[in-house]
Amino acid sequence: MRNNANFIFEKSYIERSHHRCRQMGIEYSRIYSSRVLTDDFLQKKLAENRNLILSAEPFMNQLYNFVKGSNFFAILTDGEGCILSVIGDEEILSEAFELEMIPGASMAEAHIGTNAMGTAIAEGMPVQVSGKEHYIRAYHRWTCSAAPIRNPQGEIIGTLDLTGYSDLVHSHTLGMVVAAANAIEKMLEAKSYNDELTIAKKHIETIIDSIPAGILTSDLNGKIKAINKSVTEIFGYDEKEMHQMKIWHLFEGWTQVKDNLLGKSSFIDEDVYVNARKNKLQLNLSAYPIFDSEGILREITYVFKEVKRARKLATKIIGRQAIYTFDKIIGKNERFIQTIEYAKKIADSKSTILIMGESGTGKEIFAQSIHNYSNRKEEPFIAVNCGAIPRNLIESELFGYEEGAFTGARKGGNAGKFEMADGGTIFLDEIGEMPLDMQTNLLRVIEESTVIRVGGSKQIPVNVRIIAATNKDLRQEVEKGHFRKDLYYRLHVLPIYLSPLRERKDDIPLLIEYFMETLSRRLNKRPVEIPPAYMDHFIHHPWPGNIRELENLIELIINTEYIPLDIAAGQDHKKIPIAPVKESIFTLDQVEHQHILKVIKKYKGNISLTADALGIGRNTLYRKIEKYGIDCSDLDQLSTAEPPQLGNVVPF
């Protein structure tokens, strides 16, 4: 706000900036920024600026909506000029993409010459740079208007920029940017004050935020001190009657609640039986301690909610239930732990999360864990594999359909996955497989938070947090024309990259121990001890199938008590003696081949059911069918096929 309120329009700052660029030896012919962060470095930068990104996002969207359709794009940078977020129209985004104006690129003058963002940071004030005022020729077609964003201490922590073709930029464009930057500063300042007041306001906020749930407080002797209207409706007693009762008259287990809070433990989302006037009910209870100024527990606030059994059942039926949590994720690799901590920090964000990583790295496990760590954990978690749904069904699956929308449409219509996920999370796996026309519809849902059913015209509002995942390089898909640029930037707001197993070698022994214990217990077989010499080969194996491949291998070892030849021998077959033993033990490819045959036979050649049972996408299954030369139409031949005869294996 400080300098933003009194920015000036004179252009002496252009001369100063050009002088700095000449001193730094910036070339007029430069096209790309000389500094572009990627992968771990970019993810770290985004994590460091999480508060700025989340605070700026609504104002950045509002600013863009003013000029949407006029070939503008908005950019948010950090205090060093590194791009954190980009949104804009398709045509101009294409040009920006070609010039590497993407998250991670530095717009500081030292890396790309005079431009509104870098110059605003250098000058400490809002600036507008138009046409040839840009130091490099590549930007001469544009006018950029940027304002610095300062924290409550007055330090520049970022910039907000609006860029468009020079002939379309209005004289008030910079004023709009300054107003948005000021609003972001006020939001950051308010958030800072709110954080300081959180503890002091805890009692009041607990009560206000919990309405319309049933709320009451008691002292440590069980005397009821305060109640709200919902409590009387839930229990069936009037206010006078309840004040004459003790807290343990109302529900079973009060002693456990008090002991937990006295012992500094929590009591959150536990199902309890309550003694209502007419009958005994099961409710969900969370209890919160109220401390005095000396930190001594004085009272307890109880929040009663209805147990959402119907919703939980629906979640199990219409999507994979979110069963994984971060504490169930195995790993000690430093980079992997940092990824988990970053995922926890963004769990409550409303922004779209994009999880990237190779097949088998655990993208859905992360998605479920994020959901269960967020304030949406009691709401639906709907998983959709975009690569497994036939192209002609994906629109109705995602957005639903009205009665009569097509032949065979259910009477009364049908809700789509987005409606089913309302209030919760939708997980779009293999997002890179989504058809281009569906990408347009998805972009509308992200921008407008509404869906339109197939055959309908009514806009249905949905409150859904989107987590997308892909094993593809979406930037390359954009360059190939297979994925929309504007959707890519909308999805790439909060990216998470999951390292392949070969980059987490220190986690391999830990994962082997975990799989050996859990799988042997499930299979009712004894764990198999892996000799140290073989463990070394496990650690240095490339693991193209990542954690999923490792888990399948451990299951094979438990069942056969043999290590497949290609794993045991590593890259050098002379390292470990290989004894000729049973000829019925398969290599990994052969085990996979036989397993796919077995599942295809079980589901009578149905590709969708087979892929779902195997836990892979339809496209992946088709590739494996082609690889192994499987004829799904001849089920009789599949049922009589003999296992291939193999060569040597390595016994333990």
UniProtKB/TrEMBL annotation:
Domain PAS: 200-242
InterPro entries: AAA+_ATPase, AAA_lid_NorR, GAF, GAF-like_dom_sf, Homeodomain-like_sf, HTH_Fis, P-loop_NTPase, PAS
Gene3D superfamilies noted in UniProt: 1.10.8.60, 3.30.450.40, Homeodomain-like, P-loop containing nucleotide triphosphate hydrolases, PAS domain
Single biological process term from Gene Ontology: regulation of DNA-templated transcription
Name recorded for this polypeptide: PAS domain S-box-containing protein
Swiss-Prot/TrEMBL keywords: ATP-binding, DNA-binding, Nucleotide-binding, Transcription, Transcription regulation
Any one Gene Ontology molecular-function term assigned to this protein's record: sequence-specific DNA binding
UniProt xrefs under PANTHER family: C4-DICARBOXYLATE TRANSPORT TRANSCRIPTIONAL REGULATORY PROTEIN DCTD, TRANSCRIPTIONAL REGULATORY PROTEIN
SUPFAM superfamilies: GAF domain-like, Homeodomain-like, P-loop containing nucleoside triphosphate hydrolases, PYP-like sensor domain (PAS domain)
NCBIfam families registered for this protein in UniProt: sensory_box
Residue ranges constituting the Sigma-54 factor interaction domain according to the UniProt record: 329-559
Keyword Nucleus: no
